[in-house]
Amino acid sequence: MRIALHTKVRADRIAQYEAAHREVPAELTRAIRTAGATSWTIWRSGTELFHVIECEDYARLLAELEELPVNVAWQARMDELLDVAHDYSSGGAEAGLPVAWEL
Asked: DSSP string covering 48-98, please?
């Protein structure tokens, strides 16, 4: 399945956000893959961030990552940089952007 998400970086934290994503911990990327993600891409336009995640089951991905210590630490770091954060709660599974058109 493919999920699109929208988050927002603080205007004064763009450089820190991009630097953090150049150094995503290997333990976190392994955990994301183990939870079922095959691809995760983030695009930035100004402060707007658009994510596309390809995974087996998005709700399961969130459930497996929500309390995982490496993800909790990463999300705490992201909370310092984002105005709108990724929701890892069980309700976050419904946060995907609706498809407006597809070829």
From this structure: EEEEEEEES-HHHHHHHHHT-HHHHHHHHHHHTTEEE----SGGGGG-PPP
Contact criterion met (CB below 8 Å) for 51 and 86:
yes
Rounded CA separation 21/96 (Å)? 21
Q: Tokens standing for 11?
A: 């205007």
Cβ(43)–Cβ(49) below 8 Å: yes
Residue 2, both tokens:
């493919």
The structure's pTM equals: 0.91
Overall average pLDDT of the 86-90 stretch: 78
Determine contact, residues 8/83, Cβ cutoff 8 Å. yes
DSSP lists the bridge partners of residue 37 as 55
Under DSSP, is residue 13 helix (H, G, I), strand (E, B) or coil?
helix
